[in-house]
Amino acid sequence: MTESEKLFEEAKKYIPGGVNSPVRSFSNVEMPPVYVKKAKGSKIYTEDDEELSDFIMSYGAIILGHSHEKVVEELRKQIEEGTSFGLNHRKEIEFAKMLSKSFGGGFSFRFVNSGTEAVMSIVRVARGFSKRKFVLKFSGCFHGHSDQFLTSSGSGLATLKIPTSDGVPEEFISCTITLPFNASDDILEDTFGKYDIACCILEPLPANMGVVPPKQEFISKIYKLCKKHNSLLIYDEIVTGFRIAWGGISKKGEIHIRKFDESGEKEEKIKVPEPDLITFGKVIGGGTPIGTFGGRKDIMSVVAPSGKVYQSGTFAGNPLSIRAGLATLYAISSKEDFYQTLRQKTEKLFYVLKDGFFRKGIPVSIIMETGMISVFFSEKVPENFEDAKKSDTEMFKKFFKKLLQNKVLIPPSPFEAWFLSISHEEEDIERVEKAIASL
Predict the structure, then answer these.
(1) pLDDT digits (tens, 9 = 90+) for 230-278
(2) Stated pTM of the model
(3) Domain 70-333, second-level architecture
(4) Domain layout of the chain by residue ranges
(5) What CATH number matches the domain at 3-67+337-437, 3.60.21.10, 3.90.1150.10, 1.10.1660.10, 3.90.226.10?
(6) If exposure means fewest CB atoms within 10 Å of the residue's CB, which of 122, 296, 298, 397 is most exposed?
(7) Whose CA is closest to 296, among 104, 425, 111?
(8) Which residues contact 336 (CB under 8 A, 6 or more apart)?
(9) What is the per-residue pLDDT across 352-375, written as a single tens digit (0 to 9) for each?
């Protein structure tokens, strides 16, 4: 029995399921989970003394590489100065100002401790501002595990009152409408006409059904319908914020996709209108727990104490997370070609995957944006979660295990994106190439 196997057996005695997040159980790939001892740069080091090239990167939270010297230095300083105050401090203003300036100063932001908390709060803001109750979301877009978002869509039409987790009363999600991602104009128009929608929330580029890009007509139509019906548009950029570009998709105003399937390789640029409200997380915490929600100042003015929408938290604006986040964003901004370099690394991986599977005669579809990529064992690039679920999950298990044998770790789920950092090296990508060749 390996050390990781021993630890998992021990964990199951004291932690439900042996893990603190379901995907870490490795149940999707039918093998014992990996236990990490430490991490540096693009590598993790396991309790079994293995060095693995890491393409999980804390599910997108790590963009500089593990244990980056600037982040570590700032964390050490803050530990000496205090780990939690429950009071205001200078650095949280500096961070909020940096985020606000990214949007020309017209947005304000409030810090929380997770993506789930950020989304939960921003929806409350939207409802408080609009004085409406219905929320529109899309199947395959992940918005955390608060009750109102644990719903699914059915048969291509709006679905109400179908929770996807035990413990969620139907009443709790009775005001959540779920549609398929990339739904048709007719379905969108019918839904906006039928319900008095407070807000429409989506990941502009989903990563939790794999990387699945929006169609241009889909995201443009949502924007137009939100304007027409005075519904607020929320982009959940917990994953993509400051990963694919400074300020995320909301600031860049564009998604730049490269994709490959049986029809060949294509490059596509999708124009994305600016939202009313945004959530960020992951990257902006530099590997520490964080979330932030923000948007137009007139909307955000409803948040207490200036308004009547309540939100609070002892650890909100935690000095450790703020300090690590500032260090991360300053490190990104200090390198003029940061995102160009990160994209080049992602494109290198894209072509290794594309060419490797072509040589093996294995049908795949591959989709990438800067710093993130997905491989589906399917002949066509998926357009929504239903398409993604049709991919060959047995082939994914085989590929996952072959990668691990070649010292590469990817997310243990066919529906999670791979993530790269600026620290990824040629060696990491060569290991992927060798794994494909050995299939």
Answers:
(1) 999 999 999 999 999 999 999 999 999 999 999 999 999 999 999 999 9
(2) 0.95
(3) 3-Layer(aba) Sandwich (3.40)
(4) 3-67+337-437, 70-333
(5) 3.90.1150.10
(6) 298
(7) 104
(8) none
(9) 999 999 999 999 999 999 999 999
